[in-house]
Write a structure and sequence with these properties.
The structure is a single chain. This protein is α+β, with helices and mostly antiparallel strands and about 70 residues long. About 25% of the residues lie in helices and about 20% in strands. It is built from two helices and two strands; from the N terminus they run ααββ. It has a two-stranded antiparallel sheet with strand order 1-2. The longest helix is centred in the middle third of the chain and has 11 residues. It is globular.
Length: about 70
C-alpha cells in the first residue's frame, strides 16, 4: 500500500512496529490511536512466515509492503 501523505522521518521507520510507539504522540492521542496497529500487523505476518517492509520519504509519502511465502 502506498500513500502520498506527509511521510515519516527515517529515524522513526525502524520503530513503527513496536507496541505503543507513536511518531507524534499528541496527534495520535487526539485521533484515538494506541500505537498497536502496526505491531499487530507485524505479528500476524510473522506467524505466516512473512515480512513487512516500510519505506518512507518525508514530504513524499510511505509504502507498506507485505511479502508472504507461497507455501
Amino acid at each position: 500500500m502506498r500513500d502520498h501523505g506527509d511521510g515519516i522521518d527515517a529515524i522513526h521507520v525502524p520503530r513503527l512496529t513496536e507496541r505503543f510507539y507513536r511518531v507524534d504522540g499528541h496527534r495520535s492521542r487526539a485521533m484515538g490511536g494506541t500505537g498497536l496497529g502496526l505491531a499487530i500487523v507485524k505479528h500476524i505476518i510473522n506467524r505466516h512466515r512473512g515480512r513487512l517492509t516500510v519505506t518512507s520519504t518525508r514530504g513524499e509519502g510511505s509504502c507498506f509492503a507485505v511479502v508472504l511465502p507461497i507455501r
